[in-house]
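TICKET: design request
STATUS: open
ATTACHED STRUCTURE:
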């Protein structure tokens, strides 16, 4: 039976490589979320100027924005849960759902450093 107090991440040389790979993947997702967050303003301008061409009066923009916010929150949790404590990760995830605060949280999360890079 597995010990509940042991880390689920493998240890040793291969375990460190797996951990670094997961952190790098989470960082790329956060960077993609920042890029998508920056695309909201041009999308808003596009839908405002050409809204009569799009059916349902701006509903596609609302759906796109909610998808971007959701992706950003998931990305923030994926990275901050690996680099910080779980309560901090949950707090940052909830804060990432607030529009402008979410962008600041994304920028902060993108600059988090791993323990290995702090020691170097």
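STATUS: resolved
RESOLUTION: sequence designed for all positions
ATTACHED SEQUENCE:
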């Amino acid at each position: 039976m597995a010990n509940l107090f042991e880390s689920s991440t493998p240890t040793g040389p291969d375990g460190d490589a797996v951990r670094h790979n997961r952190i790098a993947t989470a960082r790329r997702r956060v960077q993609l979320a920042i890029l998508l967050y920056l695309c909201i303003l041009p999308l808003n301008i596009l839908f405002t100027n050409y809204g009569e061409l799009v059916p349902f009066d701006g509903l596609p923009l609302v759906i796109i924005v909610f998808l971007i916010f959701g992706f950003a929150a998931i990305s923030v949790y994926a990275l901050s849960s690996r680099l910080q404590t779980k309560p901090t990760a949950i707090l940052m995830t909830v804060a990432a759902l607030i529009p402008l605060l979410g962008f600041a949280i994304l920028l902060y999360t993108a600059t988090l450093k791993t323990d290995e890079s702090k020691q170097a």
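CLOSING REMARK: The helical segments are 13-38, 40-49, 59-83, 86-96, 99-110, 115-119. The mean pLDDT is 82.
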